[in-house]
Structures
1.
Amino acid sequence: MRIAFITQQTPYGKGEGFVIEELIEFARQGHDITIFPMRPEAAIYHSDAKTISARAMVMPLLTCSLALLFLKFMVSRPSEFLHVAATLLQSRNLGILIKNLLVLPKAIWIAQQVKTKGIEHIHAYWASTSATAAMVASYLTGVAWSITCYRGDIGDNNLLALKHQSAKFIRCPDEQSREEIVAICKLQNRDKLHLIRSGCERHP
């Protein structure tokens, strides 16, 4: 399966160690994975990450080319732009709105890459801006998407109810995180919330 993974920094940076393990396992199982780090750094700190670094598409969060792409999108696809803007404007406070608007040009770029590469599914690690980019890319391409959520990003409540409605499923690492999503989104059922622990078994 061709899967796009949107991370915060993986395969770059010092964090997201368990994400590296999981992406290596997806590749080992034969999936064609493409990684989109939202805020890539210059260096790879984890030695294991080097095995998947060639699968990453590196684009800084803000560049002149992304700004031009965003302007072109606004002019050429005004109805889609208005839909996306109306969605992001539902952010619960100004700080979250600004964070979401900052990732919008890159989300449009990711959508282009998803189409070009024939991606079949988009998965975001973290429910904050990574998931915002995934939700926008899914809307612009029609490709289904999903999220891996954790405590801090669940509590941030960055359009979490809208993301729950839009996503095909949400992965929760434990029961408490699942119940927090239920409470924040005021859910009547848990059909989209799947309990899947973090990490994976090591293979020789």
2.
Amino acid sequence: MRVLVVEDEKRLADNIAQGLRDGAGYAVDQAADGEEALFMAASVEYDLIVLDLMIPKRSGLEVVKTLRGKSKVTPVLVLTARDEQESIVSLLNAGADDYVTKPFDLGELLARAKAVIRRGKGQSAPVLRVEDLEVDSARRSVRRGKREISLTPMEYRVLEYLAHRQGIVVSQTELLEHLYDYNWEKFSNVIEVYISGLRRKIDDGFSERLIHTLRGHGYVLRRDESGKKK
């Protein structure tokens, strides 16, 4: 998952970004004001925007209104030092998905971020299921049938994204854009390496394949609709 953190307090922004990277394995970009946030949100399809309410140039409320006015449905989690009911109602009515009041616990922020992302992808529960495969986004653990599966951090991130988009073909470009931030040199062949590793760990030893490659299009996580068993 790829997240945009919009916060003008650099130390706080860095702490939030590091927490999202370490605690959830997300790729994170940062913006320091409302105008930069809108530019970046127009350039990248983020899975979540963590947005401070009081930022320079364009306020967080203005950013939310502008995004929704342009039919951008990217989930938005607002950080606000204001706990007045009127401010919260205005934010939610403008299209924010949730809010956290400063000062906040980083664990709570991570939990809310994960929940907002799940809801944005049509998933309410933390455990994503595809046939007998379970991806627990809260624990970042994977199980197929009775087997606990150990994945590298990047393998997990690829699988989690495919699980959120189960049944939908995801291109290499889309995976790269959601797994890495602006600072990484993107080469599509790394995705092939991760998919190969996942296929060995997820499908080998089971009668039904769940990870499928559609040549020229991308990858999809779903049951084997061909009806063929390995």
